[in-house]
Inverse folding.
């Protein structure tokens, strides 16, 4: 079998496309292939698919293809043009690549797999022997394809969270599909318009099916959801509530520890993480220390008990029973003479309606928090991003669960 025939078979080219020339350079480890469409063969207009004779050819273009062994392989072609009565002069479609691509579809698929596998652009560049610009271009086009294909896929539960983008309190708004564990989109800043911009891009049919949105108590986010998703319930994330209560317990500990140290007592010295750790994860030593401290009737012990009792709320199924529980808990918290606990309990009461919605939807931002960890890994691997656009592209590429492969596979 001749070189031309071999590559004709390897490339899967169908007539009348044919390999017209093959050059192998052993010094630079490179194979160049020239592909052509015979002048005498008619071709289809890419718009209406009607057959026309070849009008002329464009200047030669080239595409990076999968390597032949260790030899870099390049396809060359002067793409024919047809003159359609309806659509004018048009370049015909080539079966190995999409429009304006520098790479064959098969090479792009490989590059996407390498990027996903490495989770790191620098390593992918080394393996693929591509520049940063070329790798970024493949990534950007892949995300664009994926977003276009996602269309009106049903989304029932949204998660909204923030992620630091740059130093100096620069944030990005991250919107996730909690059921599919994927990032839907990312916007600059954490303003009302940041979230509004993402929601407005969603098709109306998709928005109408959103039942609930998990978030913290950030007012700009709540305003955007109320305005654009009026039928969706806001569900304040239970982990954010727990965080507020834990911070209140720690404030009580700090104040009490200072007072004890002044009196010469070191009962609370080095106990910070005892009060903040889930009791189910305590060591035998920590359990013993906790019992000792509880027997001393410390303020932080009462604060901790109030915090722990609140967690029972999440186990209720019926709103009426949960409201009765909260009423009793709230009285205890506000009459505890522990100011940090009282302040948090009042904040919880102000937002109670959007906390009790958890009983109906049972959603949290745990998925979004998990995605945030992955986003942080991406950010660390890249050692930062030059601009927000690149940051958004990377997040959607690695966390969007998009269908990113080019359709043409030669």
């Amino acid at each position: 079998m001749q070189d031309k025939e071999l590559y004709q078979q390897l490339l899967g080219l169908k007539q009348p496309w044919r390999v017209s020339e093959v050059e192998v350079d052993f010094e630079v480890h490179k194979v160049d292939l020239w592909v052509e469409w015979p002048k005498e063969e008619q071709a289809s207009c890419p718009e209406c698919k009607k057959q026309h004779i070849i009008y002329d050819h464009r200047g030669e273009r080239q595409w990076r293809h999968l390597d032949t062994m260790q030899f870099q392989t390049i396809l060359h072609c002067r793409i024919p043009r047809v003159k359609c009565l309806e659509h004018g002069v048009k370049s015909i479609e080539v079966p190995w690549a999409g429009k304006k691509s520098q790479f064959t579809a098969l090479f792009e698929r490989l590059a996407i797999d390498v990027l996903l596998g490495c989770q790191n652009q620098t390593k992918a560049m080394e393996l693929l022997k591509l520049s940063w610009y070329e790798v970024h271009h493949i990534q950007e086009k892949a995300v664009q394809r994926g977003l276009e294909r996602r269309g009106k896929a049903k989304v029932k539960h949204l998660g909204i969270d923030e992620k630091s983008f740059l130093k100096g309190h620069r944030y990005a708004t991250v919107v996730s599909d909690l059921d599919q564990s994927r990032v839907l989109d990312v916007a600059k800043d954490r303003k009302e318009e940041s979230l509004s911009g993402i929601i407005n891009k969603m098709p109306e049919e998709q928005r109408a099916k959103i039942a609930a949105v998990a978030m913290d108590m950030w007012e700009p986010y709540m305003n955007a959801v109320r305005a654009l998703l009026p039928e969706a319930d806001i569900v304040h994330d239970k982990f954010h509530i727990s965080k507020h209560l834990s911070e209140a317990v720690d404030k009580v500990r700090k104040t009490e520890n200072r007072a004890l140290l002044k009196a010469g007592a070191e009962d609370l010295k080095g106990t910070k993480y005892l009060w903040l750790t889930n009791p189910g994860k305590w060591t035998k030593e920590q359990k013993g220390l906790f019992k000792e401290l509880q027997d001393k009737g410390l303020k932080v012990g009462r604060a901790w008990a109030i915090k722990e009792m609140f967690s029972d709320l999440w186990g209720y199924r019926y709103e009426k029973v949960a409201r009765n529980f909260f009423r009793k808990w709230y009285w205890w918290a506000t009459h505890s003479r522990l100011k940090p606990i009282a302040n948090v309990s009042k904040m919880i009461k102000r937002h109670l309606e959007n906390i009790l919605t958890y009983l109906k939807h049972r959603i949290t931002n745990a998925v979004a928090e998990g995605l945030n960890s992955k986003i942080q890994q991406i950010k660390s691997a890249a050692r930062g991003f030059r601009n927000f656009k690149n940051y958004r592209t990377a997040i959607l590429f690695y966390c969007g669960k998009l269908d990113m492969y080019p359709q043409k596979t030669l």
Summary: Residues 238-262 form the longest helix (25 residues). The mean pLDDT is 93. Residues 238-361 form one domain.
